[in-house]
Give the backbone structure.
Amino acid sequence: MALIDELANLLGDNLLLDDEARHSRARDTWPRSEFDQWQGQLVLPVAVAVPSSTEQLAATVQLCRFHGVPMIPRGAGSGCVGGVLASSDSVVISTERLSGLRWLDPTDGLAAFGSGTMGIAAENRVREDGFTIGHWPQSIEVSSVGGWMATRASGQYSTAYGNIEDIVYSVEAVLPDGSIYQSRPTPRASAGPDLRELLLGSEGTLGVITEVTLSLRPLPEPGVRQAFHFDNMGAGIEAVRSVIVPGWRPPVVRLYDAVESRRHFRNHLPKGRCMAIFLHEGPPGHAALEGAAVAELCQEAGGEPADSGAVDHWFEHRNAVPTWTELFEQGLVADTIEVATGWGRLDQLYTAVIEAISAVPTVIAATAHTSHAYQSGANLYFTFAAQPSDPDQYQSVYDACWSAAMQAATDCGAGISHHHGIGRVRRPWLTDELGNAGVGVLRAVKSALDPQNLMNPGVLIPD
Amino acid sequence: MALIDELANLLGDNLLLDDEARHSRARDTWPRSEFDQWQGQLVLPVAVAVPSSTEQLAATVQLCRFHGVPMIPRGAGSGCVGGVLASSDSVVISTERLSGLRWLDPTDGLAAFGSGTMGIAAENRVREDGFTIGHWPQSIEVSSVGGWMATRASGQYSTAYGNIEDIVYSVEAVLPDGSIYQSRPTPRASAGPDLRELLLGSEGTLGVITEVTLSLRPLPEPGVRQAFHFDNMGAGIEAVRSVIVPGWRPPVVRLYDAVESRRHFRNHLPKGRCMAIFLHEGPPGHAALEGAAVAELCQEAGGEPADSGAVDHWFEHRNAVPTWTELFEQGLVADTIEVATGWGRLDQLYTAVIEAISAVPTVIAATAHTSHAYQSGANLYFTFAAQPSDPDQYQSVYDACWSAAMQAATDCGAGISHHHGIGRVRRPWLTDELGNAGVGVLRAVKSALDPQNLMNPGVLIPD
C-alpha cells in the first residue's frame, strides 16, 4: 500500500503497524465498542500514526488526504460515546506524542500544552507553579487536554470555573486540508465568529487539535466543604436553584437522587434522602461567606445538614469507576447519559427519564445526579444498568435504554448532551437537538472544510 | 424592478421606499460613512424592508436571493466600524419591527426578545419582573439586542457578568438561504460546535438574527462604589491585575490614563494621576467583602483613595457621547479603537499605540482606558482626535490613525478588536488576527452558507 510506505518515510518510528498498537488505539471507551472487543470483534485500523510535531501531523493529514484514506483522530481514548472507532481502511492519528508543557507564563496565568498531554499531568505541572487549571473531569487521569477540547468537556468545578470553553485561551489545530490554524492569543475578541468554537466539540470531524493554551487560576486555599440532605430530588433542585440564582457559584455543586445517595454516602444519611454536596473556595473570606449563605439557603429549602465527612468521602473516591468489561463479566450492561435543561423542568426531566429507562425490560437500575449548575438551569447525569439473561441481548438492551432516555429528554425539551458529546451513540438524535437548519449548517461547514469526508467519518454529523 | 414589486406584495407597509427611510437606514455610526453623509455623498439602498415576523423576514431573504440582490441586515445602526453600509443595488433588511418581549420565564430567569428590541427597552422590561440582563453597553439607548449579538458586544458590567456570548441563552436567525435556525434552549450543551457562536460576531454576513433569548439575573441590591488613583497606567494595571487574578470580579472595573482621568474626574483627583473606579455588587455580603479586599489590594499597589463621588459622576454621564458630526463641525476627526492583550503586555501596548497614533500629523489627542478585565488580561480602549486644516484631509488622517494603531497593536501581539467588531474599518487586519488558515475557515464557512455572497458583502471577511 503506497500510503503506508509514504507514512513510514515521513514518520519513521512514529508509525505503528503492529497488532498491539492497532488494537489498543482502535476505539474509545464507548460500551458498544468495548463489548465488540470483549466479543473478539474489534475492527483494527490500517496503521496508527503518532506524530511528534504539529508539522509532522499536518504532513500525515496531507498524505492521507491525497490517498483518500479516512483519518481517526484520537487523544487518550477516554470518550464514552463512540467518537473514536477505527474502520478497516482507516489510519488512526493519535496525539499521544504531542505531549508536555510548551510554555507557562506566570504573569498572564497561561500554560500551553501539547494536545496529547494527559489531564492529570497538565494539572500537576501547573500546580508546581502555584496554579490550577480548574478543570477536573472524572476522566482526568485517563483523558488528554486535546480530548477535553474536542469533546467540549466539563469538569467537577465547572459551576465556578466554567467548562472547557471558558478555560481554553487559544488553540492550534491541523485542519482537514493539512493547514495549521492558530487562534489569536487574546483574552477576548470581537473579530468575527469565534473559530475556536468550531473545534470545541468537533470530535475530530473538523481537524486535529495539536496544542491547547489554558487560562489558569492561582491554586486556592483549602475550601469549605458541606452537605445537606433533602426529602426528594425536587426539594434538592429547588435548594440548588436558590443558591445559584442570586449569584453564588460553589465550584462543586452535586445533588444525588436517593438511590445514588445510598450508593455513595450510605454512612452519612438516612435511607430515602437525597444528598447535596458543596465545595466553596475562592479569594480570602469568600469561601466562609458563601458557605454560610449556602447553609442558610439549603436549610430554608428543607435541607438537613450531613457531616462534612460525606464530602471528604466523595473527594477520595471521585475518580473511581469500574470498567465496562468488569460489568459485562458480571452479566451487566450499563452506561451513563447526561442531559440538561432549565430549572423549571429539571425535576420533570428527572422523573421522565428514570421512568423511561426503567420500563426497558431487564433494566435493574436507573439513577441520576446533577453536577453542573448555571444561572438558568443544570444538567442531569443518569446511570443505568440492565441484566439481560443472554449476552446476545446486551446490544439491543443497551440501544433500547438510550432510545428511551433520548425520547424522554427530547419530549421534555431538554438538551440531549451536557458534556459527553454526540459520537456515534447520540447521532440519531442530533437533528432533534439542532433542528434541520442547524444540521444543515453543520453539514455545510463540514463539506466546506472536509469535502472528501475523510476526517472521522461516521461521527457527530448525521448522514 | 421585479424584486420591488414582489417585495411590495410580500411586505405591504413593511417595505419602505421613500428617501427619508432609505437615508436614515443606509449606514451605521462609522465616522467615515457619517462623514460621507455630512458631505452629502451617502449612497442609498434600493429599498428598506422592515418585516414584522420571522417568516416575513425569511421570505424577504428568499426573494432577494432569487433576484441576486445584496442584503444589508441592520439593527439600530449604532455600530461604529462600518458593518452597515448600503450599496446602490442593495436592500436593507431592518429588524426594527421584530421588537418587544416575546416571553419571560421567571423560574429559569429567561427572556426572549425580538432582535430589533432596543437595549434599554429590554433592560427596563426585565426590571419590571425584578431582573437585569447584566449587559449595559454605552450604546444601550441606541442599540438593539440583535445588534449586541451580531457584533459580539461587551457591556460595562462584563467583568462579573460576562460579555454577550455569556448571556445569550438561545437564538433564532434567518440563514442566507432563507431557512430559519433556532438554537436549542438549554443551559449548556456538548452537541457539536456551538452554532450560536457562528452568529455571534457574524455582523450580518451569515444570517439575520430575529430573536434572542437572554439569561437574566436578579436585580442586585445597590452596590459598593469606590475609586483609587495611581501614579501611572502601569501601576494601575498592576493593581487591577492583583484584584482579578485571585478571583474577585467587580462588575465595573475601569482604569483611565492621566488625560482621560482629568477629562472625566477633574474634581476628584490631582493632575497626572490615573483613576480606577470599581462597582461591587452581588448576593448578600459579597459587595462588602469584595469592596474591602479590593481597597486593600489597590492601596498595596500604591493607589490612593478618591471620593466615591467620582464613581457616581461616571454613572451619571456614562452614556453621553458627542456625535461625529458635532466634531466634524468643530474641525475634528475622531474615533475609538479597542484592542486586548494579556496582563504582561498591557502597559507596553498602551504606550505603543498612544505613541503610534500621536505620531500621525494633526493628531491632537490620543488617550485610553481599560474597561473589561479577564483572568489572563484586559482590553484597552483608545480615543483619538485630529484637527486637519482642511476637511479634505479628514479621511486620510482618519485612515492613518487606524493604520498606526493596528500596526502597533499587531506588533505587540494584541488582539485587534475587543468588542466593536471588524466591519469595514478593521477588515485589512483580519488576516493578522486570524492567520491565513483562520481566514480560510471563515471564507469556507461563508461560501458554504452564502455561495452568492449576498449577505452584507464587503463586511468582515477580506476579499
About this structure: The mean pLDDT of chain B is 97. Chain B touches chain A through 94 residues (CB under 8 Å).
